[in-house]
Amino acid sequence: MDLNNVLDFPILSLGIFLPTLGALFIWLFVSGDKAVRWAALIVSVATFVATLPLALMFDKTTSHMQFEELHPWIATFNVNYQLGVDGISMPFVILTSLLTIICIVSAWECIQTRVKEYMIAFLVLETTLIGVFCALDAILFYFFWEAMLIPMYLIIGVWGGKNRVYATLKFFLYTLAGSVLMLVAVLAMYYKAGHTFSILAFMDYPFDFTWQFWIWIAFFIAFAVKVPMWPVHTWLPDAHTEAPTAGSVILAGILLKMGAYGFLRFSVPMLPDASQYFVPLMVVLSLIAIVYISFVAMMQTDMKRLIAYSSIAHMGFVTLGTFMFTQVAMEGALFGMISHGFVAGALFLCVGVMYDRLHTRDIIAYGGVANVMPVFAVVVMFFAMANVGLPGASSFVAEIMVLVGTFDGAAVAQANMPISLKWVAIIAAISLVLSACYTLWMYKRVIFGAVNKDSVAAMKDMTMREFGYFVPLIALVVWLGIYPLPVLDLMHESIIHLVAQATTSKLDAAAALAQAAPMLDAVHH
Amino acid sequence: MANVTFPFPFPDHLFALMPEIFVAVIAMALLLFDLFIDKDKKAITAYIAIATSVMAAVLSVQAMMPTSVSAFYGFFVLDHFAVLAKVLICVGTAFGMILSIDYMKKEANIGEYYVLMLFSMLGMMLMVSATNFIIMYLGLELMALCVYVLVGYQRDVLRSNEAALKYFILGALSSCMLLYGITFFYGVTGSFDFATIGTALADVDANAHTAVMLGMVFIIAGLGFKVSMAPFHMWTPDAYEGAPTPVTAFMSIAPKVAGFAIFIRILVDAMPSLQHEYTTILTGMAVLTMAIGNLAAIAQRNIKRLLAYSTIGHVGFIMLGLIAANADGYAGVMVYMAIYLFMNMGVFAIIILMRRDGIQGELLDDFAGLSRVRPGYALAMGLLMFSLAGIPFLGGFWAKYVVFMAAVEAGHLYLVLYALLFSAVGAFYYIRVVKYIYFDEEKVAFNFTDSRLMQATIVLMTIATVALGIYPDPLIDLCKQAVVGLI
Fold first, then answer.
1. Which one of A76, B107, B152, B359 is most buried, by most CB atoms within 10 A?
2. CA-CA-CA-CA torsion for A346, A347, A353, A356, nearest 10 degrees?
């Protein structure tokens, strides 16, 4: 048992359920928009504080799960309430609790209708998101994964833009259709791996290739929809465009990461042979996301749509790095997710700031914003540069790690590839140019130029509150860009362990088990 | 099985049958008593009937023995499974009556309405305890005849009459099929007793194969009609739409519980040797049922029709428990029915409240903007819809989960995949209801006549759905124990 478990305090449960308890409290006892906003802020800050010990007391020297909790939940089916975090999931918990605070602050003034419901939905959403990253039982994981749909459906549908009904239905059905396949995969694994839903047991169980193959495909569809990967990405631009600002932030910041996290937590460690087999598929889809979607992004006339497509392109880097099976690439992928959470989140907040003033997201409606909002222009410039991957920003670290890791991809990743991974890295590197094109072009059209519209001329610079939620994001992006080591340190052991899992074939053990199986069956009966 | 012998000790037989006797006596007494009640005080019959249903549930539990009791020469069995089914039936009936109190206030002859419900409940209680085709048929017909009348209870409403007539004609046809099937089994085995038939069919003459198959098919068809399995589902949308809404609520639960319970008993006791055949047939029907229910619901504009197709879809999922043909599957059916009871009663309670200012409140448009006017009802309806769609932290997820689990365990992975895909399709029309409630603007004014009783029902059902969604273990455990003695 690890040292931090000696404390024996259910930090993870507290982090998961504090927002919901807070939401319940707000629902029952708090009235008045102002009081609700403050109460929600207090709850989210409290949750952040409650999750901080995870980072501070995290044991960097082990790849084992930490802060574990285990209680029987549905004993009849051996479903357990099992929680725990390692270096892969812990950063996401912190990221979620941090971004939720920012979301709540950002909604302070732009959400004027049904404030109470909005805050409750957001806090419930936070519960489900943290739950996903902490769950070590596949059914518990699925439970949170699916429950997330309810608040998100309402957030986009109630507080979204004009075309919100279409967007939210599309979002809901895409995700649901993907995730039911995950449930089938989980049930199949339960059946195969000896009546357990423990994610750790699934990682250890030697599935033979046929099982790995089909289960991998089911997981792939579920996670690919969520990431989202080309060609199942079409829900994302719609959902992003129609969602309220904070909804977009949480969507880009956390929800997209759930898919990639799924690959890291399920597909790669549980199904290493299938994962290696499907490397070419993942590489091709990632490259399409990186290159093709970047071109698509360039052609957008709506700022939120543009950033949404840019998110898909950046997630292409993440999926590429995940399937290179080297420590550098995987850490780069993981780091990229965290960095993208801040950068894309901040960009959506920037659009939100402008939207609050002009109530349009069209690029052509702006122009010359720098003249009327100088401070804001600097902030946007900063995040635009971060989105491009300028050295000094966190995204640079992530992208360079993925590229280096891909260039030097693991032998098992190379084995199934018809071309050298070096070429893959070179193609992926094109996106550095493309992302500069679409980001800076948008920046030029929106921020620079002369003010020739009255509406733009009337825009006021950021308020202190607006500036306030950019400050931590700027600080984090710079910090992670210049000195990423503390965060990378947290991941090292877990990623090394994951690389070992990913590159070790389960087939020999599966064959051995198949030989022994008749005897085992005899014992069972 | 503790086989109580006739004639001595005689009271034991009656003791096993006590809940049914109690219901029969009260129902008949109520019919007389009703004559002496003033017109404006008719509600009292409702309260008596509700109390009777609750009492019947309590008595059923009381009558339960540690082991199953077989009374009246093995015509009647009282085991844990029957008791569980009876409790669900009685609770479902009680809630059907609670929902009726306000809705039926202005109808004539309201006393008989509750008596009919009680008799229908009696029929179902007999049915789930039957170990013999004759008793089963008697119970089934007692139930069905009462429900036909209940569906047509609004005499001056055209669609109510139409629904009743359609339901009656198709119901009579299905009863014929059932009887026809039973005669085949009787012809082959010379018995009406489930267990005797089961043993006899195990080593039946090869020449009788066709007769056995015909019997099985007709029995499945007849029972399938009662629980709305496709392709015998045609009556469901019309009957659901035309019936008074509380009757719709009632018939979406109690007869389904009874139907599935007796279905399980027949499959287990009378047809164990035909497992391969009936699984094949049921699989085909389940595939059809899920598709029809979930696809046809998408096109509906009337929420009662929508829920009728939704019921068909759910029946398709429940059938997975029958197809699994293992203890988990049968327990899953009961878990599903129990959770479905809470969800559906809550939904119908809200639909009943939507009747206002001379509009029926049954169109989806009538729900538009509900969340702005009544956030409480909107939240309940939203949660129940998400639950029906099978989204976690709500009961509906576990309902699906248990039957799917059992089907996977029995090796029907592809069927589960198919079912899950259709549950994703089904989610569309449920969340579309949420769309009307939460995203749309008010189209028709809301002037609710609030009723504390209805509100309490809604709150109770919603809380139960959420609670079962978070911690379903006790219910699953209960149902698993109830089926232990069955197999």
1. B152
2. -120
Task: Name the band, by pLDDT with cuts 50, 70 and 90, for residue A407.
Answer: confident
* Inter-chain residue contact B431 with A153, CB threshold 8 Å: yes
* A324, pLDDT greater than 60: yes
Q: Which residue of B has its CA nearest to A140?
A: B392
Cα torsion for A63, A69, A73, A79, to the nearest 10°?
A: 10
> Which tokens sit at A121?
């939905």
B443, pLDDT greater than 90 = no
The whole-angstrom separation of Cα A315 and Cα A395 is 12
Is residue A1 predicted with pLDDT exceeding 60?
no
Local confidence band at B1 (pLDDT 50, 70, 90 cut-offs): very low
Quote the CA–CA distance of A80 and A76 in Å, as a whole number. 10
Distance from CA of A179 to the nearest CA of B (A): 9
- Suggest the residue from A26, A31, A76 to mutate for an interface test with chain B (most B CBs closer than 10 A): A76
> What is the Cα–Cα distance from B249 to B265, expressed in whole angstroms?
25
Separation in Å, CA of B390 to nearest CA in chain A: 9
Instruction: Check whether A457 has a pLDDT greater than 70.
Output: yes
CA quadruple B388, B392, B395, B401: dihedral sign: positive
Residues 124-163 of B with CB under 8 A from A: none
ipTM score for this prediction: 0.87
From A512's Cα to the closest Cα of chain B, the distance in A is: 24
Best residue in B328, B383, B391, B430 for a mutation probing chain A (most A CBs within 10 Å): B391
pLDDT at A525: 45
Interface test with A, best of B328, B385, B401, B429 (most A CBs within 10 A): B401
Q: Show me where the domains of chain B are located.
A: 273-487
Q: Which of B398, B420, B431 sits opposite A180 (nearest CB)?
A: B420
Q: In this predicted structure, what is the pLDDT of residue A2?
A: 47
Rounded to an integer, what distance in angstroms lies between the CA atom of residue A349 and that of residue A333?
24
Interchain CB distance below 8 Å, B392 and A74: no
pLDDT digits 0-9 by tens, A489-519: 888 888 998 888 888 888 888 888 878 766 5
In whole angstroms, give the CA distance from residue A103 to residue B106.
Answer: 52
Nearest Cα neighbor of A247 from A349, A95, A114 is A349
Q: Using CA atoms, how far apart are residues B63 and A144, in angstroms rounded to an integer?
A: 42
Query: What HEC string does chain B produce?
Result: CEECCCCCCHHHHHHHCHHHHHHHHHHHHHHHHHHHCCHHHCHHHHHHHHHHHHHHHHHHHHHCCCCCEEECCCCEEECHHHHHHHHHHHHHHHHHHHHHHHHCCCCCCHHHHHHHHHHHHHHHHHHHHECEHHHHHHHHHHHHHHHHHHHCCCCCCHHHHHHHHHHHHHHHHHHHHHHHHHHHHHHHHCCCEHHHHHHHHHCCCHHHHHHHHHHHHHHHHHHHHHCCCCCCCCHHHHHHHHCCHHHHHHHHHHHHHHHHHHHHHHHHHHCHHHHHHHHHHHHHHHHHHHHHHHHHHHCCCEHHHHHHHHHHHHHHHHHHHHHHCCHHHHHHHHHHHHHHHHHHHHHHHHHHHCCECCECCCEHHHHCCHHHHCHHHHHHHHHHHHHHHCCCCCHHHHHHHHHHHHHHHCCCHHHHHHHHHHHHHHHHHHHHHHHHHHCCCCCCCCCCCCCHHHHHHHHHHHHHHHHHHHCCHHHHHHHHHHCCCCC
What are the pLDDT digits (tens) for A338-350?
Answer: 999 899 989 998 8
Residue A317's CB is within 10 A of a number of other CB atoms, namely: 29
Domains of chain A, residue spans: 299-482
pTM of the entire predicted model: 0.90
Which residue matches tokens 């001379």? B358
